[in-house]
Automatic annotation (TrEMBL):
This is Uncharacterized protein. The lineage of its organism: Bacteria, Bacillati, Actinomycetota, Actinomycetes, Streptosporangiales. Keywords: Membrane, Transmembrane, Transmembrane helix. The chain crosses the membrane at residues 129-149, 155-178, 225-249, 255-275, 336-360, 380-405.
């Protein structure tokens, strides 16, 4: 049944999809309404919450309209409102006729068997106190014994570079998985679905958790989701530091743990790169009370670039400021963030072009040379070490390219 066939009349009865309806964090005269399974949310006037409630009770459109007019002394075209909800894919049926689903079908969250009651205890006060005790104990231990603080030499715990890189990368994969799993568990503890997958940030391949559904959760609770991954990283670092400090470990085990501590520690500064939508970006976005800080910031950067080249463009091609319709506090935040976005991205990509890419190319070239020599009478161990390096670094770069093209297919489609 097409949308056109399901017309909304005064006597129409509407069935809605399961929706989240909550008060807006900033505006007492507004509500947030959305479908967590789609990650689609909208800000609506508060009276719309009453309309949605009455429609959910199975009342006809005309009856809902009359009830709202009597209760709130407002005239609201409920039929038009239902059509707007249908455009957002919030309406399941009109007069028993199902509406077509969204262009992109709802994506099921991962680990749906994990429910709020299973993981709520992870964020209860006793666990927070335990986390604090472990972290404080580790911090005091490092203050007393500064030699425990990680050094860059700790990364190469083995005499074979390829083996060190392989094992450290494998451990990093575990840490990243736990980090993202903590985001998912935090979202689940608030009743929101989440999904883990690969993504790209500039030249980085990243594991990321889609927690779009937490827009249905009040802001003060969303910080739990944003910070859960970093909190797990800090707890892991503290635990390993205490193990190195107080357990009688054999030298190889201690060297390995020190490498793992450094590997985990290096993950934390990356979160400060807020121009790449890291964990701290989402914290900043909510603190600044912005809805789409990155998207608005990116549009503002494009606007500034377009304005800079405006004298070179054809006359009659106006450039419009995309922040003009934003609230004052949001406009100010977006413009400042846009500067950080432009500078941070430029510096990061420049450093990668000057240092990161040449290091990767040089390392892979040396590894290929050693591997070729191994096939022609050269040292076998050096060849194996080179093969491990190629396996790790080459695999990461291939995964980056696959993820980059998969998530940006629209860039490479020919316009009709």
């Amino acid at each position: 049944m097409t949308t056109q066939a399901a017309e909304v009349g005064a006597g129409s009865v509407v069935r809605l999809h399961p929706l989240v309806v909550r008060p807006d964090d900033d505006d007492p005269e507004a509500i947030i309404v959305g479908r967590p399974d789609l990650g689609e949310f909208a800000e609506l006037p508060a009276v719309c919450g009453e309309v949605i409630r009455l429609l959910g009770e199975g009342r006809p459109v005309a009856e809902v309209e009359a009830a709202v007019a009597a209760e709130h002394d407002v005239e609201l075209d409920v039929a038009d409102f239902v059509e707007s909800l249908a455009d957002l894919d919030f309406v399941a049926e009109i007069d028993g006729l199902p509406l077509p689903g969204p262009a992109s079908a709802p994506v099921a969250g991962h680990f749906e068997g994990i429910t709020e009651r299973h993981v709520r205890w992870v964020f209860a006060r006793p666990m927070k106190l335990l986390w604090l005790a472990v972290v404080v104990a580790a911090a005091l231990t490092v203050l007393v014994r500064p030699g425990l603080f990680p050094r860059h030499q700790d990364f190469f715990w083995s005499g074979y570079t390829g083996l060190s890189v392989l094992v450290n990368t494998a451990f990093f994969s575990v840490v990243a998985s736990v980090h993202e799993m903590m985001h998912l568990i935090a979202a689940r503890s608030l009743g929101a679905p989440a999904r883990i997958g690969f993504g790209t940030r500039l030249h980085y391949l990243v594991v990321q958790t889609d927690v779009s559904a937490i827009w249905g959760v009040p802001r003060r609770h969303r910080y739990r989701v944003y910070l859960a991954g970093m909190a797990s990283d800090v707890l892991l670092i503290a635990t390993m530091l205490l193990a190195v400090a107080y357990l009688p470990l054999p030298d190889p085990a201690e060297a390995l743990l020190r490498a793992f501590i450094l590997t985990t520690l290096l993950c934390l500064p990356l979160q400060a790169q807020i121009y790449m939508r890291t964990d701290l970006y989402f914290v900043l976005r909510d603190l600044l009370r912005c809805k789409d800080l990155f998207g608005d910031g990116l549009r503002y950067v494009r606007y500034l670039l377009a304005r800079a080249v405006a004298p070179l463009r054809r006359p009659g091609s106006p450039v419009t400021d995309p922040t003009g319709d934003l609230a004052t506090h949001e406009r100010r935040a977006v413009r400042i963030y846009a500067v950080a976005l432009a500078l941070g991205s430029t510096v990061t990509l420049t450093v990668f072009a000057l240092y990161g890419a040449p290091i990767i190319v040089s390392g892979l070239t040396s590894a290929l040379t050693a591997l070729w020599a191994g096939f022609h009478g050269g040292p076998a161990l050096a060849a194996v070490d080179a093969a491990l390096l190629i396996l790790v670094e080459g695999g990461i770069q291939v995964m980056f390219l696959v993820t980059f093209f998969r998530t940006r297919r629209h860039w490479f489609r020919r316009s009709e």
